[in-house]
Amino acid sequence: MATARVVIPLLLCFIQAGDLQPNRWADLYAEASRQLNHGDSESAGRTAEPAYHFWRVAPASDWYWPFRLIFAESLLEQDRMAEATPLLDGPAPNAAWEARRLVGIAFIEFRARDNDGARRALESAESINPQGARDVAGKIDLIRGMIDLRQEHPAEAEDCFRHALEAVGGTGSLVESHTLTDLGVGDLRSFRNDEAVAWFERARALAQKSGMKSAVMLSDSNLGVCFRRLGDLDRALQYLEEAASIAESLGDRANLMRGLVTEGEAAFELGDNVKAEKYLEKARHLTSTGRDDEWLATILDDLSEIALARGDLPGADRLNREAGEVTDRLGTPRARLAQGIQAAEIAAARPDYEAAERLFGQARLAAERLHDPVALWQCHAGMASVYRGKGRISDTAQEYRAAIGIIEDERSKLTHDEFKLSFLSHLIRFYDDYVDFLIERGDTAGAFRVAQSCRARLLAEKEQTAGTPVVAVEVKPLQRALQASGSVLLSYWLAPQRSFLWVIDGADLRVVTLPREAEIASRVRQYSKAIQGDANPLETGSAAGQWLSSNVIAPAGRAAKGGKIVIQPDGALHQLNFESLPVADGSRYWIHDATVSIAPSVALLRDSSNVQPSRLLLFGDPESAAGDPPLPNLKMEIEAVSAHYSDKTLYTQAAATPSSYKSSHPETYSTLHFAAHAVANRESPLDSAILLAGPADSRKLYARDILARPLTADLVTLSACQTAGSRTYYGEGLLGFSWAFLNAGARNVVAGLWPVDDRATAHLMERFYQGIAAGSPPAVALRQAKLDLMASSPLYRRPRFWAAFETFTQVLYR
To answer: Is residue 90 within 8 Å of residue 97, measured between CB atoms?
Structure first.
């Protein structure tokens, strides 16, 4: 009975197929081709299979081989090699079909790791492929490029992929999408990660337009790898989760496995070892021995790394040995390199320094042969930890410097600012180790220089003459500038084991050890939540606030007692307004004792006299769109601000548009003021926007638009919610409008850390600009405005109303 239930529907398919007229066979074949070219290989197979079975009884017919080939090609796309192989037994009766058959054979040979057999099949296909068969020509070059990549010939692979794109470019086909993807893979293998992103985005756009789910999945998966390498783990996980979802919906075991591996690696870098292990174990269960050995080796190495991170040395060693058995089967240099580096890490953790030194040395030579900069800096970093353990101080320092040299070289190759922002995120722990080592040796100034070498780099580069390297931060010139301005610098460095605070003034440089990063971050979250929730810690008390005051400010000693304080935050401290912390006895906030400003880049701090603002450009009270919360006090704020300027240009209501900003020559104004709604974009900070007037699709002034227009303003004020930024990047700091305007050339930016009350803000801005008009530097004027606001009403003593705004600066005013 079971057999009958299977056979009857199949016979019906044959009967229905046999009833077709000749032109209907052409339509059926065209439909299968369309489905395959648009990435729907399962539908293509379902369309072609009944026709193939029908014509099997007439192999000499004109339709037998076309349906046989397209059925085989649909199976190849589904990774069903064993089922496709008998369909490609030949030869086919004419050159066009035979060329396609040979390309299919070449792909099967490639998947079986028979590179020579694949190349022979491709040469035969090329020799008989008819002129004008673009799709077949593209596939030939595509598979050749894949073989070259496997054999570590990236330049030759790129040539093949570009030839393939010449053949199939503009067809909108699956082959074109695969070609774009493989161009990206080639760049990935050559560590040109930002260039790879561009190829994958093109492939993804084409795949989405044509509804190719499998091709979208491949692009997502590869974009996840790119952004993980570029340090943007949040964006990486977004792409990887989408890829895994599509793979599951398609029942695509191989691509689900690959996506899970990269998801696991990203989760591990984010510190979520439990989630990382779950992803990797799920991927491991999907592997097929022999067919997926490259991925299995990666999974085992990753699981070994997780075991090592939690201190399970026997488990880490067992998994690493299993990976070694797989890499021995594979025989590929890259797999052996990864397994060798992990073996060295395990030896160092034992600690068996002699074995670790030998293994890292072997891995370094292999990394040099493969031109693998990531593996190379890992070897230098690992060797530094070994030499540090052995007490070989000069060798340790040499290895740290070598690793930093490789990191700097790789960063210099990035062409897009957005990718430079996140690049250090997955490397910052190496800098932690180096800073810790130098402080342990008593080299306080050297540790400070290393810390500054990876902070606000992009901001510093924007200020340099094109082609001029960023000058390292030297302590003596910085101290002279601090002395001239009467300021003290508090520079924070948060790290997993212990954090540091450098306290620098005109005469002294000292470092203080602080609690570990997780403790500080936890207290910052608690305190920020409390004050944004309308608490008044002076009345209710705050354990988190007192802890932060005692452990973050008090260690600065006399510097914390008052005067002009310039703070360089790190990590979670970017989200803290230091002024809002209660002093030791809980009688007042720190703002009563100190004038505080925030310096994203110490390298750019310059001693200067105050500049009297003279020319105002203001955008405010734009025509609102449906759904925008009302801001009834904007008119009052605009009048109060503009009253202090005789030379002014105001854009309000319908005139306050993004295009008006771009055409207003903002570079000619000394003061820019924005009074409007704003939206922060955590996933892509440069897509944060000030909401101005105009149609819904063009009313946003993006942070990236700000970067495009150089400024000379002494002051930019952003009287809107969360304009300081919503995301912190390791090294670069808090990303948002404050960062964008400083990058564009502004000397000072006043911006908000959280949503603000528009009535309180109007009063605050009125007092702030009174101070600016009286000649006060921005940080001094903002502090006095806050104190005046606090004194004006018991309600406004609560930090929620005054502590959101901070002054971000590049200037040390005398």
So the answer is: no
